[in-house]
Amino acid sequence: MEALSTTSFSATRHAPPTTFIYDEDSGIYLSMGPQHPAMHGPWGFRVKLQGEVIVEAEPITGYIHRGLEKLFEKRNPQQGLILAERVCFMDNVNWQLAYVISVENLLGVRDLVPRRAEWLRAIAAELNRIASHFLFLATYGHDLGLMLAPVFAFRERDLVINLLDALTGHRITYNYLRIGGVARDAKPSWINNAKRNLKELRKRMNRYYDLYLSSEIFAERTRGKGVLAAEELIRHGVTGPVLRASRVPLDLRATSPYLEPYEAVGVNIALGRNGDNYDRVLVRIKEIEESIRIAEELLETLPYGKILGIDQPVISLRRGYSYSVVEGSRGWFQFLVVSTGGFSKKGSMPYRVKISNPCIQMIYLIAEKLRGMMLSDAIAFINSMDLCIGGAER
Amino acid sequence: MSEAARLLERAVIERGYEAGGIPILRVRPEYYHDVIGLFAGMEYMFISLSAIHWRDLFEVMVLLYSLEQGPVIISTFIRENEEIDSIVDVFPGAYLYEAEAYEMFGIVFRGNPGLRKHFTPPEVETPLRKEYELQETPIGGWRH
Amino acid sequence: MNVVEYLRVPQISLALSIGFIYLCVYTMRKLMARVTWRIGPKYVGPAGFFQVFADILKLMVKEDVLPDVEPRYMRIIYGSAPFLLLGLSLALVSATPIPYLVAHIEPLRNSLIWLLLILSLDIVVLIVSTWYVSSKYVFIGSYRALAQMLSYDAVLAMSVLAPAIASRSADIAVVSKGLHGLWYVVSLPLGFVTGLVGVLAEIEAVPFDVPEAPTEVVGGWELEYTGPRFLSLFLAKRMEAFALFVLLASLYLGGDAGYPPLPRGTWLFIKAFLVAVLVMFIVASYPRYSLRGVLSRGWRVWVPLAYANLVLAMIYSALW
User: Fold this and answer.
1) Which residue among B47, B120, B122 places its CB closest to the CB of A334?
2) Which domains, ranges and CATH numbers included, belong to chain B?
3) Least crowded by CB within 10 Å, which of A78, A320, A388, C248?
4) Which residues of A touch B24 (CB under 8 A)?
5) B26 to chain A nearest CA, in Å?
6) For chain C, what is the domain count?
């Protein structure tokens, strides 16, 4: 396959060329990553440059594989909660949500989850999505040389992180969800705080249109660069904001809501036009606004009641498969939990857990699209995909 | 009877429902590639591929999704040392998933050019097989 | 004319530019902090004024590392490039009117030509020194710098020449009097804009920092310099910036003229500083061009505009 011929210089993987030779035919090999200011996470590309144009690109992976799937096989479902949110630090709630839904389906206790808990889950997930997208805006602005972007975006992110901190007790790994509910209830004062912060955040969103989208230089870097056709993305199975930027209205929160609150408030799908870098930024900014709206409406309609439907920790699983999919900030976060059942120590642990998300496909999709790009466009393109390498390698 | 229906009749062993409410089709390994191709023709998109190590069998599960029909899982069982057709010609997104299944379980996908180590250090072999024990100390060092 | 007097010029240039750079770096930090709702340097000295000094001290004691250069003798040139560039920048500042104003010396004749000559020399030093370095990012950065220099030196040179042509003199002192007393920023506003763009490209400030883009080529051609060499390079670049700001201020903003009258050179210094603050705002609020964007805009937009400005200056010169 043409798409997969990036393996042609895979022999160099463990012995990269050390001599520096430049001539028109061979070009130069450049390691962009795993230590490169623009590669977020320990990964990168070994690219072959002719002048400024990339003629071949091979991904460099393998620096952050933590063996999470094997570790899950040695943990009972309760312990697995903590592992589940460590798949990707940028969007923990959604990862944990995928795991929790999967385990609840396997146990058959999905209906026991109280409505208030479902609402709180959705609120936490939306807040986390906002935080994740702000992290994208920060890093993307920085990659394009916009000095203000990281400071602004991190400050806005802090509004959200502070809320999550007050709700869950942590700033990064929240460990908020439980099988059958959530860990802590939201106090009325927290709800008022949240409303105020979200209102403030909505006010500040205009700045991102000014800073990013209406800037001529930003448009030069992003418009018409790194265009991904919808068919191509569907063939590769890429989901999430990247797919929506290419005008495919696929958002699980809207098309098949996995939580009741999403059904209750309704989700508008943010769509791009051409699927270029610009649209990927635009879609994320719109999604932040939509998430703010969803979170605000959920806070308004938060029902009263219990927050935990199961009053004892889950230490065993039923026999069977369970597949759950959640619309995370980077596409579909999927958890396959397989159990052989039983109450022995072995039976209480999942037989196999498979974690997947579209970042895995994106690695080679990006490598394929890099060919023929200029170096500066390559950076703008790679980071507009907002790939989480921790989530991809697990 | 259409060709697609005939293929499905020959290929499918069992239809069922997952705990997550996703329909699952168990197919014979020799028809696995054709069934995937059939679904690709029906505007299904590839979402992910997983492998499971049962005692002497490997299960390969492919999650497909279509905007109209929703998700479906195609599953097939192969024996150890048995090879299976790669689906990268239909869905290029499966490239790294298959490479990962090869790396973690040793399942060989015929036609996938990327079957090599992507994630683990060279010392580690097929870590997700059941006979592989978790080790307390880190293995080896990095050689890049 | 006393030749010995002129020996004081480099000393005064160095003192002035170090003062200017110190002020600019401190202001840049405070300004960026204000713009982003932060506080900025705070602890070293009053309002953190000596923070820059602390940074300089840190750079002085850092380890000095140089990459392999093959053939070996090129290593000498590569290693000394920061000092060569520092010398060139000093020569550049010495060609501007400000040290003469401060020292009460009669300025050089036709110093504009001298200035343009020195401006075009630093890229030669850069290319020669980095050509054989085994660091690829340095190599890519240096040819990016060359590409950018090729297009934007023309913009800068034309914008600098326009006021000179309009006032029919290559003496900066004469040019800064303006067109019959009217500053050139009023009579040739386009020239000021293109000049500013040329200066931004020359000093590799943010919309035009393609040659050293940290997120693309990891610092570009200055990547492998550490400690004192980096400090020297840092000084050289900012001194060049100082010279260009002074040049812009004296050509377009009326030079040392100002009200109320201050000691000689003060107004020029203030004007150069104001240009620097303008540049700081630009640096803070724009992302970076891509290489292709920078080059195509250079040839398609800025060179024609600078040329139009030049033609306008010729018309002025012919009419008055």
Assistant:
1) B47
2) 3-93 (3.30.460.80)
3) A78
4) 321
5) 13
6) 1
